[in-house]
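Suppose you are handed a protein chain with no further information: no name, no annotation, nothing but its sequence. What can you learn? This example shows the usual starting point.
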Amino acid sequence: MSGVGGLGNKNYNNAMSCCGLHPFRALGNWLLPRKKKGAKVTPEGNPLPKAVHASVPASRTVGRRVIIVGDVHGCLEDLQMLLEAIARQDDIVIITGGHHGQGPRRLRGETIDFAARSGIMTVRGNHDDRGVRIWREWKNEGVAPPDRGDFAWVRQVDAAHEDYLVNIPFTIRLEAYGVVVVHGGLLPGVPLAEQDMRTVYTIRDVAPRHPPPFGLFSWARERRVLREAVQSGQIHVPPAYQLEALERPGEAKENTRPWAGQYVGPDHVIFGHASSRSLQLEPFATGIDTACVAGGYLSACILPALDADGQAIPDYQPLPPYMYQQSVRLFDGEGVLARLCMQPSLQPGDALDKAKGEAVGKAELAAAHAA
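A reasonable first move is to predict its three-dimensional structure. Written in structure tokens, the prediction is:
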């Protein structure tokens, strides 16, 4: 494959320039720099990217679809196969972080090279931030990266991609859709600009931050309070209803829930990171990490192109029959109708049967909900 949607590398600079993009500055051109007050480095000690929270203006997406791809983790052949099958030349492609490491050894360094050359945007995952630290230590202090394991890809990073690598944002917000792309997730009850950077790329579960004053904690009541806060425009919730972010299910807490099930806006979040849960279809959050690196699926969420008035343009492009496909309406059934597709992984592993069963089952539930 010569580039995203067949875009050749030779013509890439000219094509991207006409859209206001550049292979190494694609993120910087579209950013609203909202760095968290007080934070001077990332959780791994790296300099902050040009924008912690990037934003793609509505004007940049008029007439163009947005394809959001789940965690790739070095499975370059899977990514190329997926884009060859579903992407068009003018599509905007975003990866939910974790775009290198853990995959086939010979391809790990090539994945970030392909993403940078093809103008693919990505958000920062926990593996990505650590990889940047290891790469900077190698460049600045002469500390050699490991020659095996999850971070061997650092040895293969082209120095020409430094700007791309160090400026990967933690979130990307698509203004026209009201959609936020993130690796791990968002802590309910906290505005986007105030989200903790480590939480954004590690969160999987939430737990009550404070013991309930009377009786048992009610998750249903928590959701009602969160919804009322979002509807009022405040987003913040009283201390008794504040939640704590957890990376591992049940981590040091008994009363925990997946964060996505408690999240109620204001944006719709599309995220990765939680491959053990396969496809996650919640009213205001969609998880698309379906364990490609372990032999599951490489999944993508296709947002329809919008016209200048924000209306969806019908998309009749057929998808290959070997892909599982499902339409899901975002924002609890009130937003755009997105297309989910799940491509069987080319990687060996025992996750395929489990991921297939969970993904298809959840897709069927989503179809019933959309109907």
